[in-house]
Design a protein that fits this description.
Number of helices: 1
Distance between the termini: 30 Å
CATH topology: Arylsulfatase, C-terminal domain
Order of helices and strands: EEEEEEH
Pfam family, one: SpoVG
Strand content: 35-45%
Radius of gyration: 14 Å
Structural class: alpha+beta
InterPro entries: SpoVG, SpoVG_sf
Organism: Oribacterium sinus F0268
Helix content: 10-25%
Keywords: Cell cycle, Cell division, Septation
Function: Could be involved in septation.
Largest sheet: 4 strands, antiparallel
């Protein structure tokens, strides 16, 4: 499976969430609402989730393997950084 598109929508509000991302695979399957979040150790991604009746959040879609999660995170954060540099913001 190949990542064929990454679209980053910057969040203008102050806070930890920096962007919302959509990622497309093989020009056939897309996952929307992946969040780019600024944590204590730097940026990371959070997969789309839904609040359950008991108040917890559960991912709607997520990678099974840690290597796949790392690939997604690396791809998304590289695109986020490229877009930020184009806008003259950087990190």
């Amino acid at each position: 499976m190949e990542v064929t598109d990454v679209r980053v929508r910057k969040v203008d509000k102050e806070g930890k969430m920096k962007a919302i991302v959509s990622i497309t695979f093989d020009e056939e399957f897309v996952i929307h609402d992946i969040k780019v979040i600024e944590g204590e150790k730097g940026l990371f991604i959070a997969m789309p989730s839904r609040k359950t009746t008991d108040g917890e959040y559960r991912d709607i879609a997520h990678p099974i393997r840690s290597t796949t999660r790392e690939l997604l995170q690396q791809t998304i954060l590289e695109k986020y950084q490229e877009d930020a540099e184009e806008e003259g913001e950087g990190f």
